[in-house]
Amino acid sequence: MVEVEGKGALRARLLHGEVVKTSHREPAQERVGRIHARVREALLRFRPEALAVEEQYFYRQNELAYKVGWALGAVLVAAFEAGVTVYAYGPMQVKQALAGHGHAAKEEVALMVRGILG
Asked: Which ranges constitute the DSSP H helices of 1-118?
């Protein structure tokens, strides 16, 4: 979660970040349920105005695609329950907004994010 400082300014403050770890050994409902619960808790705690997610894009591996879809579904349901609007952005859109071009390397994007968050 980030808090944007001022309107239109590229300054923000990190409020919360978390990795929800799951294991392929766990049943799918437990993994998806844990993701849903942690996202829902963060949304209810911080009450954001909106939530941004990575737009689904083409995956070469069908198994990976549907598992990513499960996680995204858990996030979308949590946002619905918390009354938070969701916006989806593709990787190139994010890179364009942060680095000025859609083909920026991960390192360049990370540098821009660190600059914005101070």
From this structure: 28-46, 62-82, 91-99, 106-117
